[in-house]
Design a protein that fits this description.
The chain has 192 residues and is mainly β. The protein contains 1 helix and 9 strands, in the order αβββββββββ. A hairpin with a 5-residue loop joins β6 and β7.
Length: 192
């Protein structure tokens, strides 16, 4: 019995050390209002890379526009300073009659005095298939007259929680008389 007690004490010490290490790794350090978590506890495993292609319809003309000016540019500038709210259709093809897969909801604002460059703040809110109810959030600079523009994906919701990536925009058509535009978006997203 005398020989077993030191062995049990050693095993208890080793067990306590392993349990303490596990607790620190899983729970993390407490900071009062936040803590580190092991992503596996939330069900997040290996990241996937997804590609989405759709057409963004910016309709400013007609009786039911999807883009509405909220703040107009001051008279002393050409476009700098305007703000437009959007609820733009996202379709599979460039025609408005193509299958609707979601809406781009948010706003864009003219953020440059030297060129036509927009600050884009929008969620791609999907309504199709397994992505129904999920969003991808884009926040970035859109220099409109560049042939291809790249903006960061800064997150999302639903299937795109903790996502990151980028969105490429390429103007498909623009009508200078009405201001209506169709833009092809290719979005690359890393998500769980």
């Amino acid at each position: 019995m005398a020989k077993i007690l030191p062995i049990l004490a050693s095993l208890s010490t080793i067990f306590f050390l392993i349990l303490s290490l596990y607790t620190v790794l899983v729970i993390g350090e407490g900071h009062g209002f936040g803590r580190s978590l092991d992503r596996k506890l939330l069900g997040y495993k290996k990241e996937k890379l997804s590609h989405f292609q759709f057409y963004w319809h910016d309709i400013v003309s007609g009786k039911n526009p999807s883009s509405v000016p909220v703040i107009r540019a001051p008279k002393n500038t050409s476009t700098f300073g305007f703000l437009t709210m959007i609820d733009n259709p996202l379709t599979l093809g460039p025609k408005m009659s193509s299958k609707l897969v979601g809406k781009a909801q948010g706003f864009y604002a003219s953020a440059s005095q030297e060129e036509v460059s927009l600050l884009m703040v929008m969620n791609f809110a999907f309504i199709e298939g397994k992505y129904n109810g999920s969003t991808i959030t884009v926040l970035g600079r859109n220099p409109v007259f560049h042939s291809v523009r790249e903006m960061p994906v800064i997150g999302g919701s639903g299937l795109f929680r903790f996502s990151r990536g980028y969105a490429q925009a390429k103007t498909h058509t623009f009508d200078p008389k009405t201001g209506d535009a169709i833009v092809e978006y290719n979005v690359y997203v890393l998500h769980y």
